[in-house]
Each structure stands twice: as structure tokens, then as C-alpha cells.
Amino acid sequence: MWRLLILWSTLIYGAYGMNQETPTINPQFSKLTSHIAVKEILDYKVYEASVPLIYDSKWSKSEDIQINNPCQKENQWCKAAEQLQQFHKIIEADFININNDLQDKTEEINSIRHRQRRSVMATFLGYCCGVASKEETQDLYVGETKLAYNLQSLYNTLDTDHSQLSKVATSVETMTDQANHFLKMTKETIADTINKTENINQNEKIMFSMVMKNTIGIFQSIEAQRKSRIIDICKENKIPHIVVPLETLRSDLTELDEKISREGYTLSLKTEDITAYYSAEIATCMFSPSKIAIKIQIPIIKKNKKYSISKLIPIPFAWKDVTCIAQQEKEELWISSEYNTQVSKINTEDCKKGLCFMRRVRTQIPSEATCINLIIKRKNHKLMELCQMKCYHTTKTTVTQIKEDHLIITHPSNDTEILCSENKKIITENITYGALEVWLPCNCQIWDKKTIIVENTFPCDSRVTDYLNISHIIPQQWTKWATMPKTKVRKHNELHI
Asked: Where is the signal peptide (predicted)?
């Protein structure tokens, strides 16, 4: 009788407009669903291996000029020279403060690195195809000799096949060369002006020299700030765009993609989305007083493989005075391929900032994977047999959020209210079987026993859901039962269905 009622009852009572004057809601059975919601995660990219690109660059060099002001007279030259000297003291103090800040940052990073000796990316490399399997850059700030040694060690640890791939990148010296060239030209211009200007006196020479000194001081402060910014980016394991410009990386990635294509691989993050590389945590930095080295782990994947990552959210359902939920009670990430009928669970430590590592050994629990495969592939047969649920004696109202505006309410009380602006709707029927599926506009609240259990949002974006829609749902596998199986309550107030 119940099954006939479900099949007959296909009208969804929802889609209530905001101006609807109906004060109460009395839903009927209207929708069959899975006991686990599948939410595809579009922001994650899958990779199976990584290839390192290595960049090194010199810091800009600036020579200080020692100038004494011998001017003792009270004339315009002496006054101007004194003002320039005071200006230089301000620049010098600022430079010292920035350098002190740099020292604090490097000490902080070294402390963190020693506490956490291996980064997540380094762990991933251990599973990858012979590409660098060591963490070569433990300390961010090292001496010149150690930096050179570590760079050479990095290249030496690369597998022979992949060492050719990693030689795509060259030293990034353009910005440094331009800066040093600017300083050289400035000094030469001032010196040339001093030498060629006729009748120039000692005061004027001092003036020119102090202008040069302040120019170098300003440049030093700018370089120190640039260095500070690079350290901040490196602390987050991201690519410092100041050292590796966008066009340089794009060019190197294009060349790398051509090389790995011959091995049957391609880039996980396409060059068309070059900014994704700068937001991903795939870089390790190391620098000395005169040089910086950056190792970027480029995620790659086999050609013609399309993976999709789904978040599986168990939905609790009511059956009289008990609540039933899937065996896996917590949200999990699973990965599936359109060319493979199997699905695999993803370890949470393998996903970081939009990148998920696909291990060679796939994590599968046979019975659990078979059930998840049926749900992800939307195959409803054998759900009852393969997808078990467990039940607890509780009628506590719970709200499960699937999306921002998509909610499941289990065991709503008789006085549950949905308040949208000035309109109030009361759910009058006691839902003792299944749950309520609610598509909730951003200007609506849900109250239960005079307590807000779902807040409205601000600012309100009505493009998501602009009307209230409610359905009474039950899990698909229950449709084969005429009555609840007479299963005894096991220990911990738990039932197995």
C-alpha cells in the first residue's frame, strides 16, 4: 500500500512564492532519493605525478657610497647638502627596519621547517615515478656554499628520464640584470656629468654624490621590500611571481608539456589557466644573501584520463523514533573515472588547495566501494543489498547542508517554522518517515522550537534560489519494504538495516 502511495504521489508541493498566503505546509511523499548525496567538486584537479622546474636568480647588488659633508659654510650648497644627508638617514633607518623584519621572517620559517621536516608536496614525490624523492630545501635561508650544494644535489637526485624534463627552466636573471644595469648607468651618468661640467666646484661634486647615495638608498629599500614580499609568498609554498614572471612560467610550461606528451602525460593545470599555478601550494624556496632558488613541482596526469571528484554527504532519515544513516557517517571525497567502473576513496592529506594526488595504490573497501559506485553512477539496482544503513534511537532534529541553499531536515518538530521576509510558513505534519528536502532562498530562516537552526544570508543573492521549494523524501532502498524490518536494537542503541 505504501509503495503504491509513493508511486502515485509525484506532485511536489513546494515552489511556494514569497507572496503566498498559505500559512501551513502539509507535505506528501513526493520524491525518492539516495541515502547519500553526491556533490561534484569542480574546483579540484587530479594529478598522478609531478615534475620539478627549478629556477635560480641573484639578488640585486647595490654598492654604498661613503660621503662626508665637509661643508661648514652657511650657503645654499651646504644647506642643500645637509638636507640630503638627513634624507639619507631616514632611508637608511627604513632599510635597517626592513632587514630586521626579513631576519625575523627567516628565523620563523626555519623554526617551522625544523618542526615539520617534510612538506605535503615532498610526501607526494615519494610516490612519483622516480622524480625527486628528497626534501632538498629544508631551511629557507642558507649560506652560499650550502645553496650551491643543494641545487646540485637536487639535479643529481632526479631520475635519468626525468632529469631531461626538469631542464626546461633556466636562471631568471632579467629583472636582476636590469636593476644592476640601472644602478651602473646612474653612477656613470653622474660621474660623467661631474667630469665634463666646466667650473664645477667641490660643493657641487658633493651634491651630485649625495644624490647618487640617496638614489642607491631608495633602491636598497625597494629591493628589501621586494625580498620581504618574496619570503611571504614562499612561506605559503606558492610561486613568487616577482622571481618567476607569468610569461616565463607559461613559456616553460609549454615546453614541458611538449616533452611529457611524448611519455603519454600532460599538465594537470593547463597553461590557459596560468594563474592557478600561482595560487597552488607547489613551490619550495631557498635563498642565500646573494641568490634565491625555487623548486616548483608541476602536477601532471596521463593523457586522455578524465577524473571527477565528488563529496559524498550521508543523509540521515527518520523511521518513527529512530534515525538511520549510511555506514560512512562522515563526509568523504571519492574519485571516479569515465573509463573505469570503479571508484576510490581519497585520503584527506592527498588533497590540498585545489589539487588531489591520485596514488598508485587506490584506497578501496570492496563492499563500500561497490555501494558508492552505484550511487555515483546513478544505478539504483541492488541498493538495498549493497548499501547498508545503521540506525540509532533518536528523534533529534538535524539539518544536513548539501549546498548553500540545499538542505535536508530530519525529524522536524511540529512547530518548525520557515520565515521568509514577512511571510511565515509552519510545517504542521510530524514527519516520522524519511526527511524534508528544502531549497531555501537566502532571505529565509528556519526556526525550530523558537530557536533559529538555519540563518538567512547577507548580502542576499537571489540568483541562486529565489523561491521556497520543499519535498518529502525517502531513501530509494526503502521502497522495497512494506514495513520496517523487525530488527532488534543492538548495543549502543544501534540498528543495522
From this structure: 1-17
